[in-house]
Amino acid sequence: xxxxxxxxxxxxxxxxxxxxxxxxxxxxxxxxxxxxxxxxxxxxxxxxxxxxxxxxxxxxxxxxxxxxxxxxxxxxxxxxxxxxxxxxxxxxxxxxxxxxxxxxxxxxxxxxxxxxxxxxxxxxxxxxxxxxxxxxxxxxxxxxxxxxxxxxx
Length: 153
Ligand code: FES
Prior knowledge:
Blueprint: E1 11-16, E2 20-26, E3 37-42, H1 45-59, H2 75-88, E4 99-101, E5 106-107, H3 108-117, H4 122-129, H5 139-150
Antiparallel strand pairs: 1-2, 2-3, 4-5
The chain binds FE2/S2 (inorganic) cluster.
């Protein structure tokens, strides 16, 4: 008897893989669980405690579009908000090229990680990542990412 292939699981992620990361996995396989989602995290204690608080609500939620999003701006709240927006198909930062600062070769992901970690002003993003520290033409993109990440949809 051949084993039937299992359906692929839908997985959403936010954060830095292996460092400070949250992951939401849809439990698609019938009978696997009564809960529709599995929420996991890797990172500092504050993040793990926040995820533990949100886990019962998120894992039992059958319609994520109706779920209230975390409203704070701590690293964990920003990560969870991004994760839920990704799962809803609503995560769409205003700048999406791989590299944000061409003068300093700073990836957009690095800027997003800095914002999530607490760089909440353009000056702090520049200090932490070196983005926007030469010609300055990318500053508007740093500002737009800050506005997007720190807004509360
Ligand atoms: S493109 Fe970022 S400082 Fe020039």
